[in-house]
Task: inverse folding
């Protein structure tokens, strides 16, 4: 059995938390997003849970350059 680490995902709308949970549990990310929306609608706990997970879940290994890197970090090699 493959040992998966819980990480945020590049398949994201806000921070990748729902996509990361979906990848970890091998379910559709839309279902996880609907659960968060329902939790927000039923008392607001979804926003708190999402924010906590956003803070504690590590970034994905293959991050998108424009989101996680500064312009100084990206080096262009001369041809």
Result:
């Amino acid at each position: 059995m493959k040992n998966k680490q819980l990480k945020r995902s590049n398949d994201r709308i806000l921070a990748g938390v729902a996509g990361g949970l979906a990848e970890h549990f091998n379910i559709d990310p839309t279902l996880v997003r609907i659960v968060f929306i329902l939790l927000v609608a039923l008392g607001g706990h979804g926003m708190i849970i999402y924010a906590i997970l956003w803070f504690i879940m590590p970034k994905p290994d293959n991050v998108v350059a424009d989101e996680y890197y500064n312009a100084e970090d990206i080096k262009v090699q001369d041809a």
Summary: The two ends are 44 Å apart (CA to CA). The first helix runs from residue 17 to 25.
